[in-house]
Amino acid sequence: MRILLLGDYSNVHATLAEGFRALGHECVVASDGDKWKDYPRDIDLKRAFGLKGNASFLWRLMKALPAFRGYDVVQLINPIFLELKAERLAPFYHYLRRHNKKVVLGAFGMDYYWAYVNTYQRPLRYSDFNFGDTIRTDHEAELYRQEWIGTPKETLSKLIAHDCDGIVAGLYEYWATYNDVPELKDKMCFIPFPVSLPTPQGGASQRLSSDGLCLFCGISKRRSAYKGTDIMLAAARAVQEKYPDRLQLQVAEGVPFAQYQHMMDTSDAILDQLYSYTPAMNSLLAMSKGIINIGGGESENYEILGEKELRPIINVQPTFQSCFDEMENLVLHPERIPLLKQQSIAYVKKHHDYLQVAQRYLDFYHSL
Q1: Which residue intervals of 100-194 are DSSP H helices?
Q2: pLDDT category, 221, cuts 50, 70, 90?
Q3: pTM passes above 0.85
Q4: Residue 341: which of 270, 261, 248 has the closest Cα?
Q5: Would strands 130-131 and 102-107 be described as parallel, antiparallel, or unpaired?
Q6: Distance (Å, rounded) from C-alpha 9 to C-alpha 334?
Q7: Ramachandran bin of 18, using left for φ above 0, alpha for ψ from -120 to 50, beta for the remaining angles
Q8: Which of 37, 66, 139, 324 has CB atoms 3.0–4.6 Å from 257's, for a disulfide?
Q9: Which helix or strand (DSSP H or E) is residue 102 part of?
Q10: CATH domain 2-194+353-367 topology
Q11: CATH topology agreement for domains 2-194+353-367 and 204-351
Q12: Which CATH number fits domain 204-351: 3.30.1360.10, 3.40.50.300, 3.40.50.2000, 3.40.50.2020?
């Protein structure tokens, strides 16, 4: 097959492309590298600020358009698949529709349905937009609602979701959200995120030293409260203050992906995604290296994967106290750490190996 992956978040498309190529298929990734993270791509669609940057981006985009034709499948990372305003993207979507056989939409992150369904229908106990029946009113949640509901982004999101051939959800939460939209549930499927496993495996899993547990926390400043990093980091600092000789804390903010990985690799556990039911790409990459994930590991995550035995994730509820208690427990019981690290590697290998995931995508594409 010839496959075009348009846009990227958290290295999902770049990793998936590796899998497609290893399985003998032609694949092109066109993206902005997820901005400062600078993930690999074949066609660079990074957009700089200012008139010169805008002109350069538009010139490169128009020059690239002929390369966006003739594919068996075009997969979009999001309804906003190019760095353009939503009202300007519809013609590009229709161009892709006309000149390619199938178009698939990724349910991998923020879009109209994620914002609307979790605000008003609330199929999840908690999410980026609700705590039970209570609607979240923190600044980031309000901004995303204003951005996606009742706006051109809503119009575009609905257009693509209803018109495309299929929708792939990468996490249980996104699957549950789209599954709550009757007219879309029959065209969607769940496929786990792909992870390229480290070789050799297990280096980080043996890192624990006499200096105690080392926790790693990556911060995206604009989304800290929205993703719960502020609460997790505050809890970690409180545990560190209580046990200064048993806990080290590494914090990364706005660093390139390569530097981010290096900092993460020297840690025993990662703090990530307080309001998630499941580990996303950041956590999965860490787990593949034997780094423990403290974050989303609800029962629904294991159920959708069909996992009956492995339980490597330290699941936290979206509260300061839950985060503090789980981190303190890990500090006080370091004997748990080797098994959690071993299970973390086994979990990613079993459910997220990029070749296995790529094959599931190919099976879905063939079924359309």
Answers
A1: 112-116, 139-148, 152-163, 172-179
A2: low
A3: yes
A4: 270
A5: unpaired
A6: 34
A7: alpha
A8: 37
A9: strand 102-107
A10: Rossmann fold (3.40.50)
A11: yes
A12: 3.40.50.2000
